[in-house]
């Protein structure tokens, strides 16, 4: 533990200093919260007390709601989970090597939760709201193709419903230009982006089905047809 606390360079007297720190934590949290067995300290955390665990539970509940066709419940779960974020992940130890895996996992889960929230809102018919939020989302993370796909599909659904999409309308060209400027990558659209473009180029019949592109990795997404008519 001393190696982790002092980033591999524990000072002289690290063991006694660590014992003092643990004693202070016991006074703050309660003596029964921290136990020591064979030189290993264990902090007991009750259900509902850990923000990151609550966030992961909210996101899992949101995906489960999408899977059973309940976008209203999914929206509430994703919104509740995202409201738990009040700053950087593990802010006090964000530079510690042992924390990097957890930080990366939680950040990725947050991004996918934001995208799943957009999908749930779109399934509820909140297309104007989805367009505005998706435009902000692609500006924040322009290399995530799922965000471009959701934005283009929401714009398409606005047009299909006889509603004038907000201006300026985001297009394949703007997507490619922004992506290439940010990353110096070949601006050729990826498979998810092309799939959304195919949807937007179709004719607009009175009743139709649309499916969001399947996310290549991460927690499960709805990926189900949206019945619009």
Overall pLDDT: 77
Indicate the low-confidence ranges by residue numbers. 167-171, 185-189, 191-229
Tell me the count of domains: 3
The topology string of helices and strands comes to: HHEEHHHHHHHEE
Structural class: mainly alpha
Shape: elongated
Give the assembly state of these chains.
single chain
Rg, please? 23 Å
Strand content: 5-15%
Sheet with most strands: 2 strands, antiparallel
Count of alpha and pi helical runs: 9
Helical proportion? 55-70%
Number of strands: 4
Note the gap between the termini.
60 Å
Strand order of the largest sheet: 1-2
Description:
- The protein is mainly alpha-helical and 229 residues long.
- Helix content is 55%, strand content 7%.
- The protein has nine helices and four strands.
- The strands form two sheets. The chain has a two-stranded antiparallel ribbon. Strands 3-4 form a two-stranded antiparallel sheet.
- α3 runs parallel beside α5.
- It is elongated, with a radius of gyration of 23 Å.
- 23% of the residues are buried.
- Mean pLDDT is 77; it is low at 167-171, 185-189 and 191-229.
